[in-house]
Amino acid sequence: MDMSTTTRSDLKTNPxxxxxxxxxxxxxxxxxxxxxxxxxxxxxxxxxxxxxxxHMPRDMHLKSDGFASNLSAPSVESTLKAFCEARQIPYAPxxxxxxxxxxxxxxxxxxxxxxxxxxxxxxxxxxxxxxxYRLILEDGRIVGARDVVIAAGITWxxxxxxxxxxxxxxxxxxxxxxxxxxxxxxxxxVVIGAGSSATDxxxxxxxAGASVRIVARAKExxxxxxxxxxxxxxxxRIQRPASGIGRGWRSYFCATAPVLFHKLPEPIRKRAIQxxxxxxxxxxxxxxxxxxxxCLFGREIAEAKAVGxxxxxxxxxxxxxxxxxxxDHVIAATGYRPDMRKLPFLSGELCDRIAPRRATxxxxxxxxxxxxxxxxxxxxxxxxxxxxxxxxxxxxFVAPYLAAHLExxxxxxxxxxxx
Length: 419
Prior knowledge:
Blueprint: E1 17-22, H1 26-37, E2 42-45, H2 50-54, H3 80-86, H4 100-114, E3 123-129, E4 132-137, E5 142-150, H5 162-165, E6 172-174, E7 188-192, H6 196-207, E8 211-215, H7 234-239, E9 242-243, E10 246-247, H8 249-256, H9 258-263, H10 266-276, H11 286-289, E11 295-296, E12 300-307, E13 310-316, E14 322-327, E15 329-332, H12 348-354, E16 374-376, H13 382-385, H14 395-418
Helix pairs in contact: 1-4, 1-14
């Protein structure tokens, strides 16, 4: 589907680069690696893995299995497995959780080898005019680009429910804000949520000496199944095939056929996304939570207010009964919701053009927005390409797929110009 309203010939003929990538997380680094391998003039901007380095609990382990935790480059040596084997770090495709520090070391090695041109500066402004795209960097430099790919990750999309967001700033925060837990030593904290962010944050705080409780609407914490390849029969694998985003035929389809997913009617896409967006924790977190951290399940927050410098929460159970909880601080481990209007570098005019009636931008089957030459990959593409975009695993599809498309477009543009 071609969503462009102008042609490539309208774009700048002598840009500073052919492709500019905004964001240096798994999607941005992977795309840059594939563009480099194809010899495409590419510049990439951002602090490498900044969300992972500064906003994930310090001692956490990745929920994704080893085989689904790769950055993508066209080299067999680019995988997490190859990195671990070269350094004699224990690794298994399933059943052995990957420590965050191991993943960060791997990502740093990947970046040095496959994306050496990364410019560790953020983009402060992105606009479009008749000449193409204009990026203003935080250090004041101006860069012109023929095409731009937004790979912003989840950095700007932390979602705090309004009932909690109304609390004074010192009494509420999002799990995104906490890599360390030392500031909460000897304090009483309530963590809202039942997914991996909630469990990881609760354990971080408990280990730092805080008194922690988990409160969630869910009836229980859903833990991923413990991987046990030897116990899987052929029938089991046929009935529940494995994929990088979960087990079952629906997950397998979403993980292996995102372009077909894009062609589904919007109501079907929405249902599929919702079925994969339920909170879940890594299987290895069960022993760290059960019997060690108090959990109140089946509770919905009815009211939240500040009383005497503390938080007073009124929660309601399924039968409507209410109870009051008090704490020093409440942390919303309530996930992320993509919204183009939260991207501070995106001009209002450009945002209105690509997402006129919704939080996310509708994308073509090549990840292109309604603004020709502007692409969006990663979590912000979930409405168009499905739950695969929610996971790092999705970069292994996006990077080679979009790199091949950009190469074809740029080659065609060069051929037209030569003619």
